[in-house]
Amino acid sequence: MDLSLILFPPGSILFLTFLAFAISLSINLLNKRTIDYDRLRELQKIVNEYTKLQRELIKDPENKKLKKKLDRMKPQFDAARSEMTKMNMKPMLYTTLPILIIFWALGNFYAEIPVARLPFPLPFIMDYFHGNSALSNQTIGYLGYYIIVSFLFSMIFQKILGTSPTE
Fold this sequence. Notes:
Elements: H1 4-7, H2 11-34, H3 37-59, H4 64-110, E1 116-117, H5 123-130, E2 139-140, H6 142-161
Antiparallel strand pairs: 1-2
Helix pairs in contact: 2-4, 2-6, 3-4
């Protein structure tokens, strides 16, 4: 197989788009299978209520009723945050290593290859992503392109599969 078909545009764009699609779909399906989103949303309501009350207390630090309410809610808040963290960590146990291996392999192929040219330069973002790369600040490499496309696919799949934590 001729690797130049997937290393340079337009083949690299198609390959990376398919890869972002497949990984995003896999992660969202795994999340749907391992996370109880109804319970996660309940816990999110507890956390949101507690933080809202904290903001109110900052505005009115002398409110003793609010202080008591926050003190009573603190154990519930801590338990909710802990449970949410555990829920969100479970799928990461399955996905982290495979994704690291995929991007290590991609880095060996795509290191200095521009994938897409932007219509305008993004100096601050590109300095962060490019580091010491020879790519201009008007081009993005495989990682930048993957992040953008993966983010878009993830938003779509979260809506379709109901895996958004805030619905």
